[in-house]
Every structure is written in C-alpha cells, then in structure tokens.
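Record pair follows.
FIRST:
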Amino acid sequence: MRIVIVLLSLLVAACSTSPVVKLYDGVDRPAGELLTVRVPVELEILSINDRRIEGASTLFAYGHRDLQLLPGQYRIVAYYKNLFQLDADQHEIVKSDPALFTVNGNAGEVVALAFEKPANVDAAREMAKHFDGWTENLTSGERIASKPSGLILNQGFIGLASQAAPAETASTASVTPEQPTGSDSAVNTDILESLKANWQQASPEERREFLLWMSQ
C-alpha cells in the first residue's frame, strides 16, 4: 500500500510539473525576450555550454520540454534514449552516444532539437551506433547539423572517448534549473513485495511509463 501511495504521489507531481524549464537567473521574463529550445522526449540533455544540467529531463507525461534561455549561441550535448516493449513482459531501453547540437537564436525564437526517429527497436539499435541530428530554428528555418561530441555512453556512465570539439564563443546564460528532490532510499521488504505485486497488475502502458521514469 505504501508503494502505491508513493507512485501516486510521483504521478501527481509529474502531471503538475510544467514542461518549461527556466535556465537563466533573475525574475521571470516573457517568452518574447527569451530563446526557447524545444527538446523531444527521446533526447536527454547532458550539458549546455559545458555545464551539466539537472532537472531538464522530460517526464513521461509530455512529448517535449521547452528550455528557456537568454538569446545567443549554445552548445548542447544530448543523447537518444527510448524504451521499447518487446513483448508482454520484456522491455528494452536503447541509448546512443551523445551528439553535439549547436543552437543559435534571437529573442522570441524557438529552436528545436531534432533527429530521424526510428520506426522500431531494430532501427533504434542501429541508429544508436551513429546517432546524429540537427537543430531547426522554427522562426527563420535555419538548420544546423549536429557533430560528434567525442563522448561515449557506456552502461549508464559517460566517458571521454576522444577530445571533444573545441569550445566555441558563446553567450552563456546562468544555467540554474531546480534540483530534483531526494527520494527515500530505505526500501524495505514490504515495499519491494508491494512493488512486485503492482508490477504484475500494471498494464503494458503503465509498465512502460514507470520504466522510462526509473531510467532517468
């Protein structure tokens, strides 16, 4: 019963969380004064202008998130991550190595991170071996292809594969997203058994959503 309450609380928190992430200091500004970077749910942000980001991941309730930044140029390192259901009980999370996306936008503009979305898990596995994409300024139509980041993602750890591309001159915003709240690490036997029971009763979609949340 306790695990049900915990999961319901997490679901309520997810649904009440705005997909807009403020990544600048000071008072809130109208969208017309900001650069909005639209990130699809399948992309995980690793860093912006060499600063690691916490709290910018999309919750399963949304198809994308909007990062609000001061106008200018940014180097965004992101990687592909998606969960596929193989059968009634089997799931697979496919992850790629990170790619380097260049964002350049003015006040009031929206720049989207994009990639060719795979049709199935086999295509996703293949794409993950050489992941790339582009940024598209939805106002001007400008497209900029991504570049290799020089980083590898291996079993949940980010490692340096080779020297990354040299840093470019960029106007940097103060990237200060809210820190995620801590969770209770004391999981006792009763909670574990309750979790197993709830997993058996969950629908395929509920299992998918829970696994995506756990993998963040």
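SECOND:
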Amino acid sequence: MFHEGDPSGAVHLLEVGHVAVKLTTPLGEVAIVDVLQPGDTFGEQALLNPAGERSATVVAIGVVETMSIDAATFTTLFGDEVLHRFLLELLGRRLGATNRQLLEARYVAAEQRLARCLGRLADQFADTADGSIPLTQADIASMTGVTRSTANRLLRILERNGTIDIARARIRVDDRSALDRRSGVV
C-alpha cells in the first residue's frame, strides 16, 4: 500500500481484506505491529500533516480494497470541525490500542501473548476460505514480541497438542477453547 518514509498522501478505510502494519527498527529489522481488518483505518497522519511522511509500511495480505481521502478533500467535504473530531476519535482508539499492546508486552508471559495474538488473528481471518491465518511463524514472533526461536517452540507445542495446524505461511486454529485457556482469556 505504501512504505515508511513515503509522502503522506491519504487516509484509507479498509473495506475488503487485511493489511499488515510494519515498522523498521534502527538496526533495519522489520516488525509487524498490527494486522488490520475491514472497518479499520490507516494512514491517519496524512490528515494531521499532509506534507509529512508515512510513519509505517502497510502491506496488503491478499486482495485489499480501500476508500481513501486526502486532507484537503476531507476538509472541503466535511469542514475542519468534523475533521478534528474524526482525528481525535481515531487517535484516541490508536492510543488505547498502543497502551494495551505495551502493557501486554511488559507484563504478560510469552506463551500467553502468543496465544492471544493467534486468537485475535483467528477472529480476523475467520471469514476466509479455510479460516487460516496467512502469516509466517516469523510474522507471529514479530507481532508477539518474542524471538523467532521462542515463537517456533511455542507454536510447535500448540501444534502437538492439536490446538493449531501449521503449514507454509499459514496457521489454522483447530481448538479455540484450548487456545483461549492458554491465553488466560477464560
């Protein structure tokens, strides 16, 4: 969709499909910080600073359709007051999500974080053909905030227990109640 450092452009409303939001670390590693689903927005900073740069890379996961609007068009159509309320709501939700992610990263065990991540992704991809999560084990490690070897070890335990099925660039949750128990949700 766009790369970190690209000109701001427009804000997008995701109508169909899923996108991964990625950030590059100072050492050049790429981390997935979120996967968005229909109804989510991305690129909000284009409304805050139309002359600025993208702060993240957003990559389509499969077929994606969005509606987009740039700051000038938004302001022309809806006015500054609506723009400001819209931005405050978006940023408030984004800040809340970021706070929850930070709290989870600091205080929740790796196994629980991984199970919670898989649960969220299973919900997001439930409407796909076979309900599989089209991400790699490295992607899951990145989203969970663990090393790839830790993610691989935890995923293999879940696979041996019959909770998930792992294939190339795909993970399917077979026993959601077992996954929820491991995540500490239930």
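COMMENT: The mean pLDDT is 91.
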